[in-house]
Specification:
Layout (H helix, E strand, L loop, with lengths): L3 H4 L10 E4 L7 H6 L4 E5 L2 H4 L2 H12 L3 E5 L8 H11 L6 E6 L1 H16 L8 E2 L9 E5 L11 E6 L4 E6 L7 E4 L9 H19 L8 H6 L7 H23 L4 H18 L6 H13 L3 H16 L4 H10 L9 H18 L16 H10 L1 H4 L8 H12 L9
Parallel strand pairs: 1-9, 2-3, 2-4, 4-6, 5-8, 6-9
Antiparallel strand pairs: 7-8
Helix pairs in contact: 5-6, 7-9, 7-10, 7-12, 9-10, 11-12, 11-15, 12-14, 12-17, 13-14, 15-17
Length: about 425
Amino acid sequence: MTSLSAIGSLGILRQPKTVLFGPGERRHLPHLVAGIARHLLVVTDARMADASEFKEIVSAIEERGVRVSVFAEAEPDLPRENVVTVADRFGSVGVDAILGIGGGSCMDLAKVVAVVLAHGTDVRDYYGEFLVPGPGIPVITVPTTAGTGAEVTCISVVFDREKGMKVGVASPYLEAHTAVIDPELTVSCPPALTAATAADALTHLVETYTDKVKEVTPDYLDAHLYVGKNPLTDIFCRNGLTLLNTSLERVVADPSDIEARSATMLAAYNAGMAINTAGTAAAHAIQSPIGALTHTSHGFGVGALLPYVMRYNLPTRVTEFAEIGLLLGAADPSEAPLDQARAGILRIESLLRTVGCPLDLRTLGLEPTDFSYVADQAMLATRLTANNPRELTKGSIVSILERGYAADLGWWEL
């Protein structure tokens, strides 16, 4: 594996105060909530609000003497309107903690509403990095999908319709007070959502493991959320990739396999811990405008882009992709590093196919006439493009889109 000298000496992680992981560990929620709240706001979506597990959680919290209010209207891709609605509805009722339970949008909504309620401002004031002025209301995150890592990240991604794009609110103040990760809550997750979130987690791990290594000065660390690949994020990436290498096939074969569900959810947590410091890169920057145009899932969008982003980045990350090939048992240790790297990329693509992720952009509904617009919009996501190990330009992004549209899985050129 990569030596410390090869990737820099700084190791940094941002993480919640407490993380509880394991089947059935939602049992701790009533005690956790009672310790920080008298009036709890629960943020979720309509599907989860109708689940028996959700109703049991709310009842158990109320039995501890905590008043519970519920917002069950969270929408996918977190539209800004959701934030405005929650702030208007609950801004003057004395909420002193928020529980975000559901997929990434539910947890992102909880995190960003916590700072909006605390400071009485518009979420637009916080678009960007390090613009939140101080701590928000304490947040407990409970994921019901295995993929986004939002339970441990200190960023919320908001879709602003007027701007026509997704915008990140990135600040250490968005970090959850506690994350409770219970794999039993993923068993009822629809197969398509299970597949899409798995593709998202896999993309997180690959992008962060192959991210740019940055020179992190005290001033840089004080102003930026994403500070690059480092020894601590690599630990999480290696562990997450190892887990997904076997668990994805088992989850697809038997969605009720709680051990496989647990391994996949643990991998998603590892991915969340990695991206929270290192950040995602080209696949995520390019997917955002594609998703806005095609209304396709985020997970399948980044998964479909990943083969072409990996090929683009290969010339600058042969060592890292070779390490992935060896880690996943796909590469022969006696082969040349480039052959090992290609084997690693092929294994990642095999895992994407396992969950049914498309490996081309035509399937997403993208048209060649959209390429220039998508490239322009992707270049605006500088907090992501700055993490990519190989420099991105509008021209290089258009080239990635052309290859992805043509399903060109050749090795291009080094």
